[in-house]
Specification:
Layout: H1 27-34, H2 57-71, H3 78-85, H4 89-92, H5 99-112, H6 123-139, H7 142-147, H8 159-175, H9 179-210, H10 212-215, H11 228-233, H12 236-241, H13 246-262
GO molecular function, one term: DNA-binding transcription factor activity
Keywords: DNA-binding, Transcription, Transcription regulation
InterPro entries: Homeodomain-like_sf, HTH-type_TetR-like_transc_reg, HTH_TetR, Repressor_TetR_C, Tet_transcr_reg_TetR-rel_C_sf
């Protein structure tokens, strides 16, 4: 006999199982699970709480420039840049591969802002104008020249920088060099240009570190019997070293390299 109402009579009503009685779901859970708006009086969750802010390439490069200007380019690391921008290092790696790639991007951006010079008609003069512009653009950014000291950097340059390289190579070819001789000319003057920039930059930094007095040197104390010419120069060497002779030396290098490449065999 089935259990039921009074007297064991079944009233036809099936009692609901206890596990069907569920407590009401909290409004925030309903919102998260169903995607419906939160109940009035509660702010809707954006779903982005705790995520790092979106950082653009321009913001990363601007932060890198600030860090370099403040602490020097040697202090630039991906970790410090992440702290400067307020994002994780993983976010930065979406935009840069490593420190060298970051500096190359900074150099490319810097050169993008350099006005292309008006080129003269003569190929030799075009070479000199292009090199002078490159030198002046990098002289204030020696850390940019530092990262471009390894062969293979050309493949990482942007259009603006490559325009200068093309101008120099084209000028050499138009003057009578073969393309490979034009490469030799470019590389030779590049070594001089980068070396001149870095020597001056490191000299300034050394003076900042130890002071002007300690950084000065003299050849006067040398044994004149062993080093007669150096001893005679004496105090004139550091004074001469401070002169900016890049324009004169550039002309000499260009003229000498072009003449050697195009001279007629005897």
């Amino acid at each position: 006999m089935s259990p039921g109402g009074p007297g064991g009579q079944h009233d036809g009503t099936v009692p609901a199982p206890r596990d069907r009685q569920r407590p009401p779901t909290a409004p925030s859970d309903q919102t998260a699970s169903s995607g419906r708006a939160a109940s009035p009086g509660r702010p809707a969750s954006s779903g982005r709480t705790g995520r790092p802010p979106t950082t653009s390439r321009a913001e990363i490069l601007a932060a890198a420039r600030r860090l370099i200007d403040r602490d020097g380019w040697e202090a630039l690391t991906i970790r410090r840049l992440a702290a400067e921008t307020g994002v994780g290092a993983t976010t930065l790696y979406h935009h840069v591969r490593d420190k060298d790639d970051l500096i190359v991007q900074l150099v490319n951006e810097h050169v993008d802002q350099v006005a292309r010079p008006e080129l003269p008609a003569g190929p030799r003069d075009r070479i000199i104008v292009a090199w002078t512009t490159i030198h002046d653009a990098l002289a204030g950014w020696p850390w940019g020249a530092e990262v471009l000291t390894a062969d293979g950097f050309l493949a990482r340059l942007g259009d603006s920088a490559l325009w200068f390289v093309e101008t120099i190579v084209a000028g050499a070819v138009d003057h009578g060099c073969t393309r490979l001789q034009a490469v030799d000319l470019f590389r030779s003057i590049w070594y001089y240009t980068v070396g001149e920039i870095l020597v001056r930059a490191h000299t300034v930094r050394r003076k900042d570190d130890i002071g002007d007095a300690d950084s000065e040197f003299s050849l006067r104390a040398l044994d004149a019997s062993r080093y007669p010419h150096l001893a005679a120069i004496g105090d004139q060497w550091p004074a001469r070293a401070s002169l900016d002779l890049y324009p004169q030396v550039l002309h000499i290098l260009v003229d000498g390299l072009l003449a050697n490449a195009t001279k007629k065999p005897r």
